[in-house]
């Protein structure tokens, strides 16, 4: 089980024991560049979630003051998911005195050094799944049960071993193989074995290659350019590009390639995003650098930030409607 999934399970299990709670997902993506505007919005999200009211935060300093006064006597639970910068902790949960007795703050991060300035009660290291745990997670996606269907035990064991116990890969491959015939499984296993053990991105790229043309294009656009954007905006942009997201997006969700967050933003796992950038890089090399859509994500973000303009990116040219 990955960090975010584990935090979400714990949050749902115990949130009723608190006066209020807030689960802020994918902070790394939401607070792009850690500028004060995005941090202020995150402070608002925490206050709104807990108080069930629309709270306006004027600045990050004002947000700190509100957190320290409004929540001082409340027992709350707050999850800060995927933190990657010290400022995110400082402005969202930087002082224990902001919160009432019994409050619990959970932080998920890939950089444990961010926790050094703070008094931490307990640190839990999420390790790769092994043995029965890995097989069970894979089978939940592949067979909709915790064990392999008769005749698929050896194939399941082999594929689980080649994923390296990575929860994302276990779920993605399980969903891809769900309801497929034995020959399909054997073919997939052969392809997985072509990559060295450490080649996680290459193995994930196999999953991408099994998508249909429309699904591939939509997944690339979302992963590389639209990650973190509101679902409705994403749908509008993709439709403008002549694609059919209403059909493709549910399929991508079922394959664990994208998720829709509680705030209706569209999210893609970092590894899958890396894989998509690698796909574009290879495509660019094959075409002498002429057909990569946009080299840097920021270029695309700057273009579509002027809503309600809708933009399409084709080849290396940018068109606006």
TrEMBL record:
Top-rank taxon: Eukaryota
Keyword terms: Leucine-rich repeat, Receptor, Repeat
Keyword Repeat: yes
Organism phylogeny: Eukaryota, Viridiplantae, Streptophyta, Embryophyta, Tracheophyta
Domain called NB-ARC: residue spans: 1-145
Pfam families: NB-ARC, WHD_ROQ1
Annotated Gene3D superfamilies: Helical domain of apoptotic protease-activating factors, P-loop containing nucleotide triphosphate hydrolases
Protein name: Toll/interleukin-1 receptor (TIR) domain-containing protein
Boundaries of every Disease resistance protein Roq1-like winged-helix domain copy: 214-284
Any single GO BP term: defense response
UniProt source species: Artemisia annua
Any GO MF annotation of the entry: ADP binding
């Amino acid at each position: 089980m990955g960090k975010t999934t584990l935090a979400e399970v714990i949050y749902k299990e115990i949130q009723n024991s608190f006066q209020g709670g807030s689960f802020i997902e994918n902070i790394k993506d939401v607070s792009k560049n850690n500028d004060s505007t995005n941090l202020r919005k995150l402070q608002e999200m925490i206050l709104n979630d807990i108080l069930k009211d629309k709270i306006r935060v004027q600045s990050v300093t004002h947000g700190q003051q509100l957190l320290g006064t409004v929540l001082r006597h409340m027992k709350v639970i707050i999850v800060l998911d995927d933190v990657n910068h010290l400022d995110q902790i400082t402005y969202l949960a930087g002082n224990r005195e902001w919160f009432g007795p019994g409050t619990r703050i959970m932080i998920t991060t890939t950089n444990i050094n961010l926790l050094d300035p703070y008094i931490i009660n307990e640190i839990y290291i999420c390790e790769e799944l092994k043995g029965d745990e890995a097989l069970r997670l894979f089978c939940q996606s592949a067979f909709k049960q915790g064990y392999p269907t008769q005749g698929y035990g050896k194939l399941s064991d082999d594929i689980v071993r080649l994923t390296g116990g990575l929860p994302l890969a276990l779920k993605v491959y399980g969903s891809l193989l769900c309801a497929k015939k034995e020959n399909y499984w054997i073919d997939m296993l052969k392809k997985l074995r072509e990559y060295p053990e450490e080649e996680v991105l290459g193995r994930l790229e196999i999953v991408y290659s099994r998508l249909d043309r429309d699904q591939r294009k939509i997944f690339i656009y979302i992963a590389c350019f639209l990650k973190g954007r509101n679902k409705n905006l994403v749908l509008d942009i993709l439709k403008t590009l002549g694609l059919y997201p209403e059909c493709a997006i549910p399929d991508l969700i079922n394959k664990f390639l994208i998720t829709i967050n509680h705030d209706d933003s569209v999210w893609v796992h970092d590894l899958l995003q890396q894989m998509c950038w690698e796909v574009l890089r290879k495509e660019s090399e094959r075409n002498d650098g002429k057909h990569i859509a946009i080299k840097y994500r920021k270029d695309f973000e700057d273009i579509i930030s002027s809503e309600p303009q809708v933009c399409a990116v084709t080849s290396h040219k940018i068109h606006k409607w």
